[in-house]
Amino acid sequence: MSYIKAIVTMKDYRLFMNMESGSVVIVDLSVKLNTMKYKELADERMFRSARTDGDYVVWGDGRVRLTAKELLDVVLLGEYQ
How far apart are CA 55 and CA 11, in angstroms? Predict the structure, then answer.
């Protein structure tokens, strides 16, 4: 089962996700750019390369891959995760 229907990158390192459930989520990744896992996304060109296969959001050539759960954790926990 896929969780993510579509994504759109937005300004200020925000990611709009249209979920299979019909929900929409905006994830503010700017709070995570100083962490090891997310630091490559600080390059705006890299951030804008986001795509989804339904289960993951993938950037670049797959060097950064995040699940819907990981992205929702950013929404819920923000910079404190």
Answer: 23
